[in-house]
Write a structure and sequence with these properties.
single chain, about 240 residues, alpha/beta, Spore Coat Polysaccharide Biosynthesis Protein SpsA, Chain A, six-stranded mixed beta sheet, two-stranded antiparallel ribbon, 6 helices, 10 strands, about 20% strand, Cytidylyl_trans
């Protein structure tokens, strides 16, 4: 709880991954992938309940052993490729409310972003709960190689700069402006705002900036290989 508001840590883990089958329980540095998110949620002092929404019995079993609550299996219509994240989130919130567990804030932690840290969740929730001008917060990383100054389109087979004023041979340290992308490791919002805006990003959304290496999202085998290497480096103290 923070500022009198109950916080739900929600981890969504669908069983039917196509890019990397079984990814949510695939080992990462000796732990099933989903366990990293469960442990990070449990380490946050403001989260009152850690719940996993899944349609997979094997995922549910792993999550329960790690200390998460799995009070239901997600219905099939919310576990296919067409299911919207907001519907999955509100289904969990409403199911819990039906059992007498009410929450004011939802923190969505997708298991495919295991490189976040508990301190990121804690910091993001503090910013959200102590600022009356914001109703949600999402984690972002600074765009460097993907800065507009380095982007091109292809027209009739030829490269065309995205920016009309884009110079040739621009150096990274010389680009103007700082840009950020939503990197997906932390989403948090009041429940009221989720119902109103049907998502986390709107005019009242703040940013929580994380290191670029944390932005790895595991969708394919190459992502899992990179995440394994980065997590290993962090466990050795080489990354902060």
């Amino acid at each position: 709880m923070i500022n009198g508001k109950r916080v739900l840590g929600l981890i969504t883990a669908r069983a039917g991954s196509k890019g990397l089958p079984g990814k949510n329980i695939r080992p990462l540095c000796g732990k099933p992938l989903i366990v990293w998110s469960v442990e990070q949620a449990l380490s946050c002092p403001y989260i009152d309940g850690v719940v996993v929404s899944t349609d997979g019995e094997d995922i549910a079993a792993v999550a329960r052993r790690a200390g998460a609550h799995v009070p239901f299996l997600r219905p099939a219509e919310l576990a296919d490729d067409a299911a919207k994240s907001i519907d999955v989130i509100l289904h969990a919130v409403d199911h819990l409310a039906g059992t007498g567990s009410y929450y004011d804030i939802v923190t969505l932690l997708e298991p495919t972003s295991p490189l976040r840290e508990g301190k990121d969740i804690t910091g993001a929730l503090e910013r959200l709960a102590t600022n009356d001008d914001i109703r949600s917060i999402v984690s972002v990383s600074e765009a460097e190689a993907s800065h507009p100054s380095f982007l091109f389109s292809i027209e009739s087979g030829c490269l065309r700069p995205v920016l009309d004023s884009q110079p040739n041979g621009v150096r990274r340290q010389d680009v103007e402006g700082r840009y950020y992308f939503i990197e997906g490791s932390i989403y948090a919002s009041t429940v009221d705002a989720l119902r109103e805006f049907k998502g986390f990003h709107h005019a009242y959304t703040a940013a929580w900036v994380v290191e670029r290496y944390k932005s790895i999202e595991i969708d394919e085998l190459c992502d899992a290989i990179m995440a394994e290497s980065l997590m290993s480096a962090r466990l050795r103290g080489e990354l902060k």
